[in-house]
Amino acid sequence: MPASPSGPVTSRTRSWWGWGYTDAHPDDAECVALGALLPGTPGRPLPVPRVADLSIGRPGVTPPTALAHLVTTDPGVRAAHAMGKAYRDVIRALRGRPGRIPDLVARPTDDREVADLLDWAGGRGVAVIPFGGGSSVVGGVEYRGDAHRAVLSLDLTSMDRVLEVDTVSRSARIQSGALGPVLEAQLRPHGLTLRHFPQSFEFSTLGGWLATRAGGHYATGRTHIDDFVQSLSVVTPAGPGTSWRLPASGAGPSPDRLFLGSEGALGIITEAWMRLQERPHHKASASVAFADFQQALEAVRAIARSDLSPANCRLLDPGEALLSGASHDGSSVLVLGFESATSPVDDRLASALDLALAHGGRGGHSGLGGTPAADGGAPADTAVSAWRSAFLRMPYLRDGLARMGAVVETFETAATWDRVPSLIDAVRTEVSSVASKATGHPATVNCRLTHVYPDGAAPYFTVAVAGRPGDEVRIWDDIKAAASEVLHRYRATITHHHAVGRDHRPGYDLQRPDPFALALRAAKDALDPHRILNPGVLID
């Protein structure tokens, strides 16, 4: 049955240079207060950058008349599509050096228009950078280099409808440009949800999640968007294709897997049939404090290996707990949450708390809870509420620190349990040493576990240090290189859910097997013969 295309409408203004909405950015006074937390930052923030101050040249190419109505050359729109939202992007904008600004921004409304734009770009040697919400933190939506005569940013957010809802099979056909809130608003009247809530939920699209194999908020079970895919429709320079809609199949290599995680380098994902779930009605959450981080790791491993399947199983180390306000006494904090559409979850929460307390935890405060990105709900206790607020606010605070000249990097990985403790210790020690040496200032490295599995976990690290004016990008590069070296040495993935983009290419090149790289290169040659799709991503 068809679904209404109407989604939530907001009059709030998106920031062209930083995270989220402009009215949510820290003001100058809050920036100064943030900077005071890092010794060595200056006493005054960098000014908020203006598009009018950028040097934006005339487009190097003109679209044909038949496509002109899809394309804009507006300087503000072009600047907003020049890059994503990594620290590197934010500090370059603050310094007035945003990189290569696209010549054109196109907003197609259907598959035919996508195909026409690709045909034209291929014949003119124009690079095409797929763009959804622009929330990439790994350099996934910008052009680097000079091998193409012009750059077209292909913005898919006009393709944002839930086209069909199959309540019998509990699935929906959804256009890839639907932002998280727009998508969920169209599913809500059916009592259904995709249940995929990354931190970027408000500012990212279904197509972006699919193209980057995004991880959601939920810590166990179906943690990645891959798990929800029934079929994909993709437009490539070599032609369109749609996989069969199936609950499962053993017929050779999965055609969907070729494009999941391909980051727009092989084709443009335009639609997908996605598995849905009933909206949860029963929720409960709790927090547990630990004096010893290693005991907390053991508690999380025990919970992950049980059959309890918590929706949230977020372990914050002492620094992360302090930063979020979840703890002020040097404790690590485990935030637990359960939810169900059909039955109460209090017994499952109680069992998880028993496991945590048996491994040295204390407290176990509990109550009703909710998901941080979408469903709301009353907080269980102060720690859960504080963490939830910090989770949503953190990207804005990062930009406030950037205005103070601080260098802030976040990166995530995953490794098997036998390597997780030593990996965390190595990152803390080695990355903080590199950051301090590069800046001359003390560095902070915090860690939290975002996703947990029976065989391993996904640590997420935050690095913060006062920078040197004008040298922030080089320092960030040094920190990124040091972190990538540690991950490679411990055979931990270069990314668990942020994607590869351009920033993680060196680590990705080392991680993938050589025969797979050969096959990927052949797929690129076959599907994108003019080499126009997101050049520099995944494969050269």
List its traits.
FAD-bd_PCMH-like_sf; 540 residues; 20% strand; single chain; alpha+beta; Alpha-Beta Plaits; 31% helix
Concise synopsis of the structure shown:
This protein has 540 residues and is of the alpha+beta class. The chain contains 15 helices and 19 strands.
Describe this entry's structure for a reader:
This protein has 540 residues and is of the alpha+beta class. It has a domain at 282-387: Alpha-Beta Plaits (2-Layer Sandwich), CATH 3.30.70. 31% of the residues lie in helices and 20% in strands. It has 15 helices and 19 strands. Strands 12, 13, 14, 15, 16, 17, 18 and 19 form an eight-stranded antiparallel sheet that branches. A five-stranded antiparallel sheet has the order 5-6-10-8-9. A hairpin with a 2-residue loop joins strand 18 and strand 19. Helix 8 (293-305) packs across helix 10 and helix 12 packs antiparallel against helix 13. The longest helix has 22 residues, at 382-403. The protein is globular and about 70 Å long. The two termini are 43 Å apart.
